[in-house]
Structures are given as structure tokens and as C-alpha cells.
């Protein structure tokens, strides 16, 4: 399923490395992941460490569990076997897909995130650039992008049937924004036009988070608003003992038609 980032030949797995028929070899790290970047493209840190720890605490508290359930249920309805999670980060959703029985590859450019994701996991994790995915053509049944950027041409090349995109809806965390800003501006709808895929359907996942401190502070620290909000706004969030916050996401499913695979 993996291809050599140098010559694009298929990579074969050996004991401690993967190798292509032209002799390009890449070590399997002791945590089990592969680094298939070439040159100097590895991000040493990825997101800033505070944002990463806030997200880790928030997700491991299970606040976004309904989203995880919804993503798994969408995947189940597609009757697929293999998935690539593009921009998988620390593998919170990737691991859930692996546990559900899919053959999963998680790809991210952040070495620290992949290292953490791979520890003790049977999922294949790869450090790679999402614009040069080290996967053979039509390698997987579906590609998934959960809050991460993607390259539509690469998605079309590697995903045989489906592409799932998860993004926040306009009303996502609107109550948090109301504390932060004098005037709340809603985000635009996350619908994306893709050149080679047809929008198949959207499922909206909306639920209420009943948050107290420090979870409320963690939610703020996970968002870009922490860098753009007025100081008074941030102080209002920090001083707020409890808040009901709307979590609202769109799961957009796109269908991709390739010569080799006709969509179901
Ligand atoms: Zn090669």
C-alpha cells in the first residue's frame, strides 16, 4: 500500500525497515512508525506544545466522543475496509478506526505527534507530507480529513471510493466566542467544492458540552482564538466557572470515481 517517496515503487516491509525494488530503504522506528519524508521537510514540533497538551487533555476527557461515534458510523455505512487518516495528529480518531477493524494508515508531518500516536498501536503511522502522500494509486477505499488540510489531487489519486471531511459548523463554540468577543462572527459553512469528487451527503453532529474549569480553559487553548482574542475576553473565560457550549461539526462525504474502482 505504501510507495517509495523517492521513486514511487511499492515499498515492501522487512523486519526493521521498508524497502523498494530500487534499493531505497527506510527504517521502522522503535515505536513502529515510518518516516517517509525526504529532505528537510519534517516538522520538529507541529502545533505549539500548550495547544497540544490542552487538546490531549480535552479529547481524553471524552468531550468529543459523539463526534468519534458519528465518524465511525459514517465509515460503517460506506462498507469499506481500508482508510488513510490524513493529518492524523496524535491518532485519536485513527486509533478508533483501527480498533473498529479497518486497515488504517495515519499520516502526519509532525514527528512528535506521530511518535505519540504510534506508541503501543498496531495502526501504521507515517511521517509524510500530505502533498506527496507515500501511498500507491488507489491504495485505500477511503481517505479521511479531520480538521486537517489536504491536497485534493492526492486524495483523488489514493482514495478509491470515498473522502470524508470533518469540519466545524458556523455555530461551533459560539458561546465561548460570545465570552471572548464583543461581537460574535460566525465561521463560514465548511462546504468545499472538490474538482474530482462529487458531494454525496452531509451529516451534522451537534451536541452540548457542559464545561467547567479547567476543561473550558483547555477548549480555549485548543482554538486559534487564544491568540486573537482581547485580553479581557480571555480573562472572562478563565473566570467563568461553568458554561454550556455548542459543539457542531459537519461530516461531508464525497464520492470519487476512478477507472479502477466504481463507487458503491
Ligand atoms: Zn525507491
Question: What does this 3D model show about the protein?
Answer:
This protein is of the alpha/beta class and 264 residues long. The chain has one domain (12-256): Vaccinia Virus protein VP39 (Rossmann fold). It has helices at 49-60, 65-77, 92-99, 111-118, 152-158, 174-180, 215-222, 225-228, 231-239; strands at 12-13, 17-19, 25-27, 34-35, 82-86, 103-108, 124-127, 140-146, 159-168, 197-212, 242-256. An eight-stranded mixed beta sheet has the order 4-7-6-5-8-9-11-10, with helices on both faces. Strands 1-2-3 form a three-stranded antiparallel beta sheet, with no helix packed on it. A hairpin with a 3-residue loop joins strand 1 and strand 2 (17-19). Helix 1 crosses helix 7. The two termini are 21 Å apart. Mean pLDDT is 92; it is low at 260-264. Bound molecules: zinc ion. The site of zinc ion (ZN) has 7 residues, from loops. Zinc ion is lined by residues 4, 6-7, 9, 20, 22, 24.
Briefly, what is this?
The chain is an alpha/beta fold and 264 residues long.
Q: In CATH terms, what is the architecture?
A: 3-Layer(aba) Sandwich
Order of helices and strands: EEEEHHEHEHEEHEHEHHHE
Span of the ends, CA to CA: 21 Å
Which blocks of ≥5 consecutive residues have pLDDT under 50? 260-264
Write down the domain tally.
Answer: 1
Keyword list:
264 residues; Rossmann fold; single chain; eight-stranded mixed beta sheet; 11 strands; binds zinc ion; alpha/beta; three-stranded antiparallel beta sheet; 29% helix
